Structure formats: C-alpha cells, structure tokens
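Batch manifest, entry 17 of 40.
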Amino acid sequence: MEEPVYKKKFTILPIVLISCILSFQRICLPKEASAGKNLDEILTEIEKANNAFKTLKADMTLTRTITLLESTEVSQAEMSYKKPKRLYLKFHSPRNEINVVDGKYIWVYHPAEKQVEKYDMDRGRQSSQGLSFFEFGYGESVRAVEKDYTISLLEIKDEGKKRFYILDLLPKNPKSQYSDIRLWVEEGFWLPVRIELYESGGEVVNRIELKNIKLNKGMSDKLFIFNVPRGVEVIEPLK
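Output type: structure tokens
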C-alpha cells in the first residue's frame, strides 16, 4: 500500500520548519504596533538580535496535527545551530532520528532502519516547495522574502510577563505547500520562539516551540559533519 502523503511530507518537515526560526531578517511590518513598540523600534531590535547571535542551542517540541485523521504526533528534540546554515537536530525516543544540515546537504538519518535521506539544498529549492522555505529562515535577502510572501503583524499577545509579536506570512504562490505561516517573536529576545505552518487550508498544522534557549555558546564545526556509518543505505528522494 502506498504511504500516505501526510507521512511522506513529515520526513523532511523538521528541517523545513526549524529553518525559519533561526535567523529572522528585517521585514515589512505595519506602521504601528498597538500597545507595543512601533515599526522602527521593532525592526531595530530584530536586527540587533540577528547581528548579535552566532550560535543557538535549544530544546525543541514539534507537534503535527492532522485534523482530517484526528491525529496528533509530538516529537521532542535537541537542537544546535551555527551561522551560516549549520544545523544539528537529534530527536528522542520513540522517533530516534538525527537531522544534519552542513550548508550544502540536508541529512535525515534513521539509525533503526540503517538508512539516511540526502537532500541537495540547491536542488531542493528548485524541486521542493518544502525545502525552498529553507531560504527564508537562513537569512536570504529581504527582497527574496517579500517576493514569495505577504507579511503582516497579526497580533500582539501578552502571556504573563512576556509579550509576543505574531507575524503572519501569506504565500503569494497559490500552489505553496503552506497556506499560512505564523511566527511568534518574543519581545526582549527578538527572535522567533514559536512557528506555526498550516497546510491544506489549515487541515494540517505544524507547530514548533523552542525552550531553554542558549545563545553564543561554544560549538564545534564537527557537530555538523555527517559521516555515513558503515552499512547505512543512502537514498536521495528528490533525484
């Protein structure tokens, strides 16, 4: 029986989702943020935060809900990120999966199956809408972002002592994999700590949350080099 399309997409989803959290760039917001900072203040703070951090460590929770199937899958992972375009993501049991981005390739390693999926990042942008989203999160030009998305400030939300600016990204391409994208940017921290991606008109919702975030800690480049273990099969789904 053919594997459901929802499951196929979930294989590369962690890398795709986490990408837009990591280096949020200056974008176009409304002129005033009611009961919060104004446009210039928000943009200035976001730019400062992006310029200041070089590495990021965090605990990540990925929740994928498929309304039609009434199913929810929750995965926990440890994440390490280093500019530019280096990512290490280790999922805990029962998923037991390792994702590595080395700047050129995306590796999705399944130890139990002795199999690793390999994606060329340049080719991925051309042949996969999911992987093309990688461009935005890893700091491509503002013009590239605005070319593909209409961006607005959806809401300002206070939770306890924290304030979040919720940014809404609507793809201009009607065939985009994601019908809507929402980023939660925390005031004071000024980087997204939560991202929600909606597929199929909202029937599938992917949510990532980062906690225990640590910036600019020592991080070896060796962490982002994936050496294929002996006896592990390498497959390239997009070829």
